[in-house]
Write a structure and sequence with these properties.
Length: 278
């Protein structure tokens, strides 16, 4: 994995007219209506680098949910941010966006097992490319790319039944559009000139939702805070060695079933908060 991975992710200052960013530029909220919620990553993504968001708020009464994808358009060059990612941004070309639904987000391959675009996935080769180590389950593998699983799965609000809800997120039993779900986009190179776009929902790869994307231009993440999705927050993913803070959190969480039990521990309040919500 390239050393550049692990940069601090932010939303671009160029965004839809109904979007408000928090001071850290890691949370985007649609303040009115149901449209004009298109956001972009501040920087282009690197191959295998995931742009991951968590659904913070929902708004009842609208049809449709979060949309996510990639664009080769530098946000700074857009005269006007399109009202919708689908179809407006996609119709401009060089953009690939996937609409998240309550169900059926898995990409269906063509009959005969051939994936869209004419490529035949070789399951045996893919399995051989996966590192065979004790820590294999700590990463999600897509082709020859690996993404740490630690932050990919959503977590419920701390409470009496939070451990039960957390298991539902882990097994993707809850709708992908539920509050606290984590949804990400990543592209995987297919040769020197093209890549496939994959959508990750609560740690599960939905497959290649767009194929043969040209990689001759930088690719920015697109997040459309659309309709029933009111607010999203960027989740920072750590590549390489985990930080000391993360290792401490994992050790504490391993010995606790109910997250509310953290309140009883003699720990700094900031560390308690970090363990509860991440």
């Amino acid at each position: 994995m390239a050393a550049v991975l692990g940069q601090f992710m932010e939303f671009h200052l160029v965004h839809g007219t109904n979007v408000k960013l928090d001071p850290s530029r890691t949370q985007a909220t649609r303040v009115e209506s149901f449209a004009n919620g298109v956001c972009f990553s501040k920087d282009p993504l690197s191959p295998g680098e995931i742009f991951l968001v968590e659904i913070e708020e929902k708004e009842l009464g609208w049809c449709g949910h979060l949309r996510i994808g990639l664009t080769a358009h530098d946000p700074r060059t857009l005269g006007t941010v399109p009202e919708y990612s689908l179809p407006d941004l996609v119709d401009m070309g060089d953009s690939w966006v996937f609409a998240i639904t309550r169900n059926h987000n898995k990409v269906i391959e063509d009959e005969g097992g051939e994936a869209e675009g004419g490529e035949q996935p070789n399951v045996g080769d893919e399995a051989e490319n996966k590192p065979k180590t004790f820590f294999t389950d700590t990463h999600l593998y897509i082709e020859n790319m690996s993404i740490p699983r630690d932050k990919l799965v959503g977590r419920s609000r701390p409470g009496r039944y939070s451990h039960i809800l957390d298991d539902l997120y882990k097994t993707n039993a809850l709708p992908p559009t539920a509050r606290r779900s984590r949804i990400g986009v990543v592209y995987v190179p297919k040769g020197q000139e093209y890549a496939d776009m994959h959508i990750i929902i609560n740690g599960e790869d939905m497959g290649a939702s767009a194929k043969k994307i040209p990689t001759n231009k930088p690719l920015y993440a697109v997040v459309d805070v659309f309709a029933a999705t009111k607010s999203v927050r960027i989740v920072q993913v750590e590549y390489g060695f985990a930080s000391l803070q993360t290792l401490c959190r994992k050790t504490i969480q391993k010995h606790i079933i109910l997250r509310m039990a953290l309140d009883w521990l003699e720990l700094p309040e900031l560390l308690k908060h970090y363990c509860k919500y991440e």
